[in-house]
Amino acid sequence: SFAYFTIKDRLPQILTRVIDTLHRHKNEFFEEHGEKGVEAEKRAISFLSKLRNELQTDKPVTPLEDELPDAALWNQYLDYQRNLSNGNGEPSWFQSPWLYVECYMYRRIHAALAQNPPIDNFDVFKEGKAQNFFESQEAVIALCTYFQELLKNIKDLDEKQLQEELFKLLQVSLWGNKCDLSFSAGEGSSQKSSPLQSLENMIPYILVNDMEKLWSLLVNTKKINAEKSNIRVDIILDNAGFELVSDLVLADFLLSSKLADEVHFHGKSMPWYVSDTTKHDFNWTIKQLQSANHMWMSRCGINWEGNLKKGVWVYSDHMFWTLPHDFSSMAEVAPDLYADLQKSNLLLFKGDLNYRKLTGDRKWEYTVPFHQALNKFHPAPLCSVRTLKSDTQVGLKPGQGEKIQASEPEWMVSGKYGVVQFDAAV
């Protein structure tokens, strides 16, 4: 299966890259921290080499031995996996759910550094994320320019025109999700050209297109809430780099068009799946735009810094986003996060990993309704904006999946197809 290929081939490649990154930074660690830095680097590398060996030889998954705040939850989850196997041996790298062991690998990478001060805050994926951002420069300029031009007359747009612009920026955010470094095992995957040019041609590749439903929800919420409370949209982020910029533009559009009064962003509390957004990536991206020597890029950066200062944009991370649990157990495992999401009028879940966690990463029949696959996870109306990079997909029309499968066996994992899939949470 694709899962087996991922664990067998892609994950060891990622670990090899992480080890190589630490090697390359040896001098920097020495300059900053002296011998202590070099010793810490050696220990981290030895920990990661051992991890790679466990993975490649299909050893049992072992409990976490660190003192980090989420360790107990991870170890409880391992017990849960042991109980699932009905005495068929210990959960091991090739004999366990893909989602679980993949998350577990990233958590172990985090432990390798977190347990080895003074290099405990080093993000082994930071360079790749920065490179993705700089290589996507032309696309970022095109998007910021388009958006700043749009803002000049946003007050004069009628409802139909606003809807068109929302759909455009949603699609840019959708296809921005192609730029995923864990998918290419860290190889370059930047957005080279302006995505706005090709949107029309990409429509047929959106397998479930619920953009109309999103629009109705936002417009109706605005009408109902005309006088009273704030309209809040939450974006559960995926990749840094170009995708993050496209998410920030979408968020700015929601505010500027008065479709939302505040936007809450949710990132990862540790480096995750190579290119996922952390707080550092989020702030770094806005700083890069601010200081760019391109007028419209820097205008975006300045405005976005302002949104954060005014509190109309809020960034947060929660330990739950980097646990192996699917979202149907959020209310039980992270009731505080679930309660926070319940305050939202719309949750936008970006990317493939969020989709896998929304649907329990099961091999569903293609026609199973999205609502059913969510398994009672309904804190608020939600929408998945995702390009397909793993073999789980629900909510298709009868025969739709089979038809594509006949001509494109790799359709579910190539990133060529996407969904904007909505659930009203009733």
UniProtKB/TrEMBL annotation:
Catalytic activity: beta-D-fructose 1-phosphate + H2O = D-fructose + phosphate; beta-D-fructose 6-phosphate = dihydroxyacetone + D-glyceraldehyde 3-phosphate; L-glutamyl-[protein] + S-adenosyl-L-methionine = [protein]-L-glutamate 5-O-methyl ester + S-adenosyl-L-homocysteine
Coiled coil regions in record: none
InterPro entries reported in the protein's UniProt record: ARMT-1-like_metal-bd_sf (IPR036075), ARMT1 (IPR039763), ARMT1-like_metal-bd (IPR002791)
EC number: 2.1.1.-, 3.1.3.-
Transmembrane segments: none
GO MF annotations, alphabetized: metal ion binding; phosphatase activity; protein carboxyl O-methyltransferase activity
Gene3D superfamilies linked: 1.20.930.60, Uncharacterised protein PF01937, DUF89, domain 3
Ranges for domain Damage-control phosphatase ARMT1-like metal-binding: 6-404
GO biological process terms held by the UniProt record: DNA damage response; methylation
GO CC list: nucleus
Cofactors demanded by this protein: Mn(2+); Ni(2+)
Pfam family, one: ARMT1-like_dom
UniProt keywords, alphabetically: Hydrolase, Manganese, Metal-binding, Methyltransferase, Nickel, S-adenosyl-L-methionine, Transferase
Family in the record: Belongs to the damage-control phosphatase family. Sugar phosphate phosphatase III subfamily.
Function: Metal-dependent phosphatase that shows phosphatase activity against several substrates, including fructose-1-phosphate and fructose-6-phosphate. Its preference for fructose-1-phosphate, a strong glycating agent that causes DNA damage rather than a canonical yeast metabolite, suggests a damage-control function in hexose phosphate metabolism. Has also been shown to have O-methyltransferase activity that methylates glutamate residues of target proteins to form gamma-glutamyl methyl ester residues. Possibly methylates PCNA, suggesting it is involved in the DNA damage response.
Notes on the domains: Subfamily III proteins have a conserved RTxK motif about 40-50 residues from the C-terminus; the threonine may be replaced by serine or cysteine.
UniProt-recorded name of the protein: Sugar phosphate phosphatase
Protein source organism: Anhinga rufa (African darter)
